[in-house]
Amino acid sequence: MKNIQYINSFFILLVLFASCSSDDSSFVEEQIPQIRVKTINENDINFYDVEYKDDGKIATINKSGSGNSSITYAYNTQNLPIQKGEASYEYNAQGKLSKITTSDYTTEITYDQEGKIVLEEAVANTYNLDKTFKYNTEGQLIEIAEHFISNNSGLAPYKKYIITYTSNGSIAEILERQSIDDFTYVDKFESKFGYDDKKNPLLNLHENSGGKEGLSYYMGVLSFHTNSITNLPPSLYFYGKNNLLFHTRTDLDDNKQYKTTYQHQYNQDGYPETTTKTIFNPNSQNSTELIYEWTYEKK
């Protein structure tokens, strides 16, 4: 099945502050402008324009360039996303995402009493995929166990993703382990991540479309993303405050390292104006460079 990559996010919230006048002791509330992503130029090939609703939520993302499309977003009365393009979202009584439906798959999500995801059951056109989740004492997701069944071959491989974090809560490493019997696991891939200390426009977009910082099901539509935890949709992604500087993925069978680096030029608000993404392929020993240009607006 085609691995669909997306994008994501929003970061600056509406903040009110009070200032004291030198003429009297009354307080005057002043609204700080909200910064949000307006356009994205993806390597002079794809161009995205983001339109917003009056309440600040994303209404539409229009794409032009290699192909023209328009993705419309819809929300319920609690401002939770219920439609993004052809994907629809349903929620349980606690307001937790409980079902995702697309033309390719349907997934149902189960939570424990603390509101943490414990089970995901996806039924796709060509496979079934069950995932279970484990957490540490701080509530961080540290393991995803995945059971995949192909409708064509009947194969049922098992995978485990072991996740570790930096001191500020960003994902530092993901170890992917595989098994054919769910008993004996072998380390297969190791991913490592590094970040800057600036503001992330992907989180900006993600939050403006109803998402939250941290691990979240992808609900965006663009062709790049932050850190994908699982490869088959529905996928969990990590939306952090800061921007990626590098992502390495090492094949532990042959010690080949696939490396992606990111160079950012920032505006005065701390967001990238330009991102240069360089992808190194150890098989061909070649690098591919992509350039993203961002513009923002204040409302």
- Helicity range: under 10%
Number of helices: 1
Structural class: mainly beta
Residue-averaged pLDDT = 85
General form: globular
State Rg: 21 Å
Terminal Cα span: 40 Å
State which percent range the strand residues make up: over 45%
Major sheet attributes: 18 strands, antiparallel, barrel
Order of helix and strand elements from N to C terminus = EEEEEEEEEEEEEEEEHEEEEEEE
Unreliable segments (pLDDT under 50, ≥5 consecutive)?
1-28
**Could you give the count of β-strands?**
23
What does this molecule look like?
The protein has an 18-stranded antiparallel beta barrel. Strands 17-19-18 form a three-stranded antiparallel beta sheet, with helices on one face. The chain has a two-stranded antiparallel ribbon with strand order 1-2. Strand 8 (87-91) and strand 9 (97-101) form a beta hairpin. It has one helix and 23 strands. Residues 1-28 have low confidence and may be disordered. The protein has one helix at 201-208; strands at residues 16-20, 27-31, 35-42, 46-52, 58-65, 69-75, 81-84, 87-91, 97-101, 105-111, 117-124, 127-135, 141-150, 158-165, 171-179, 186-195, 214-217, 227-228, 236-239, 244-251, 256-266, 272-281, 286-298. The chain is mostly beta strands and 299 residues long. The chain is globular.
Brief summary of the model shown:
This protein is mainly β and 299 residues long. The protein contains 1 helix and 23 strands. The strands form 3 sheets. It has an 18-stranded antiparallel β-barrel.
